[in-house]
Amino acid sequence: MIRFFILACISFISGAATIHAQQVLKLYEGKPKGSESWTWNEQTSTNNQFKTEVVYNVSEPTITAYLPPKEAANGTAIIVAPGGAFHTLSINSEGVDVAKWLNSKGIAAFVLKYRVVHSLTDDPVKELMPKMQDFKKLDEENAPVVPLAMADGLTAVRYVRSHAKDFNIDPKKIGFMGFSAGGTLTMSVVYNATDTNRPNFVAPIYAYEPAVIGSAIPTAKTPIFIVVAGDDQLNMMPMSINIYKKWFDAGQPAELHIYEKGGHGFGMRKQNLPVDTWYERFGDWLNVQGFMKTPEIRH
């Protein structure tokens, strides 16, 4: 069970990924509300049994902008929230690698580093492992941080929308997607948003529903794209079905993909399974919804 959770939270990486960030943008001036007393600083570690890169101890939330070439941009932007049980961020397979693929499709991507639980060692994965024996206790530990992460997500949407012209994007084509805990964040954002910070579409990928804040489905059209594996070791499959049904019953555009195999935390990993191309289906869906069509140039 612990091994499965680690796969869920941080994912394996198929090859080392180097971050070629165009711009790192702070979401707040000074210390953000709710974590004014935090004295620790963000760190990155590969000091874990899987030798994969995780970000932890985020105290100053940021978005890292990955922008496609101007001539290739289609005006759509997506904020990407990596997972990690609200303790770490799987920054490559569920963040940077996603952003690079989105760029290849003309989509601007913003990888979100949101506030997480304070880790006391330089091996946050090992520190997290014993906590996985009791998810109820883990949820209780995470409870004070989830609203802070949600605030970071809402602030990110507002920031990107208010700077749409600077990023060469359409303020009405801003999406939010997240993996595992990032999926929890995605749903919390869309349930609690206002007109200024509501995403125009969302994509919770193997989302953990019990920790989601709120349940108010938007009245404005907000398409949703959901992906999960049937053999998800953390039992996210029924949660994804539940999210889909809520959206469907509300008359909102909804699409759900359940792969037979893939486990939890597949992200952009390659496993020689059909789930390996889930993001191509995401691209098909974005195209159908009108989020991958290059705007016509008027002369």
List the helices and strands and how they pair.
Blueprint: H1 2-10, E1 23-26, E2 43-45, E3 54-56, E4 62-66, E5 77-81, E6 88-89, H2 92-104, E7 108-113, H3 124-128, H4 135-142, H5 146-162, H6 164-167, E8 174-179, H7 181-192, E9 201-205, E10 224-229, H8 236-249, E11 254-259, H9 278-288
Parallel strand pairs: 5-7, 5-8, 8-9, 9-10, 10-11
Antiparallel strand pairs: 1-4, 2-3, 3-6, 4-7
Number of strands: 11
Name the CATH superfamily assignment: Alpha/Beta hydrolase fold, catalytic domain
> H/E series, N to C?
HEEEEEEHEHHHHEHEEHEH
CATH domain class name = Alpha Beta
Q: What is the molecular shape?
A: globular
Determine the strand fraction and express it as a percent band.
Answer: 15-25%
How many separate domains make up the residues?
Answer: 1
**Uncertain runs with pLDDT below 50, 5 residues or more?**
1-21
Major pleated sheet: 8 strands, mixed
The percentage helix is 25-40%
Structural class: alpha/beta
CATH fold group: Rossmann fold
Number of distinct helices: 9
Mean pLDDT rating: 90
Strand order of the largest sheet: 1-4-7-5-8-9-10-11
Rg computed from alpha carbons, rounded to a whole number of angstroms: 18 Å
Distance between the termini: 60 Å
CATH architecture: 3-Layer(aba) Sandwich
